[in-house]
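To the structural biology subgroup,

Please find below the input and predicted structure for Tigger transposable element-derived protein 6, which we are adding to the shared reference set this quarter. The sequence is reproduced verbatim from the submission form. If anyone notices a discrepancy with their own records, reply to this email rather than editing the shared folder directly, so we keep one authoritative version.
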Amino acid sequence: MNNNKRKRLNLEEKLNIIKTKETENLSVRVLAERFCISKSQVNNILQDACNLKKYYAKNGNEDMRRKFSKTSDGALVDKVTFEWFCRARSYNLPVSGPLLQEKAREVANEVGLKNFKVSNGWLQKFRERHNISFKNICGEGNSVDTSVVEKWLEKLKTLISDYEPKNIFNCDETGLFFQALPDKTLCLKNEICRGGKIAKDRLTVLLCVNMIGEFETPLIIGKSLKPRCFKSVNVSTLGVNWKANRKA
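Predicted structure (tokenized):
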């Protein structure tokens, strides 16, 4: 049964509730029963999820922070910093190199290593020891409220029930940065890797398809109705509907 009494939770416990919601998509009632707290308390935690994650990334968990003696060495700093890194990533928090270095300095101060050097070399060796790579964060899947999606899917079934699949379409707009280069590259170990100015030239593309997989002719909007590259081209043969708008 659900315990309606308000229970004091530390930051780690609150983040655990948020993680459980995101990974298992449980209802507020089930979460309240599992963690023995009230439904209103669960709601408050979920509504404040963004702020809780930001606070954890900046300060760590005060309730879980360990107190070490001044005889601790660099191996202890390494161990505690890696544990913090793993917890932060388990909550899908982005961790940059400077943030990791700042956390290591904080841990070193706590254990009494005032002269501990957290240099770029330390960071590189730390990454090699723990097999940590640097990647781009892809998508926003973890920002989606799955309960809202489920409600919409149920409503959608009712809305399309009177239509044949061939008459049900999905349409979406996107930007095509046709001159953009990759934002990462392989380079020599000692090479200073610099990038040039990012190309922002783009086309606006509208794509549409029905439930049986039949595509409508794509709509592409450029900035000019007759760009220079179309000088000897019959636009009607391109297989797209070409339009122009200066703000495309």
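Summary notes: The longest strand covers residues 169-176. The domain at 11-58 is CATH 1.10.10 (Arc Repressor Mutant, subunit A).

Regards,
Lab coordination
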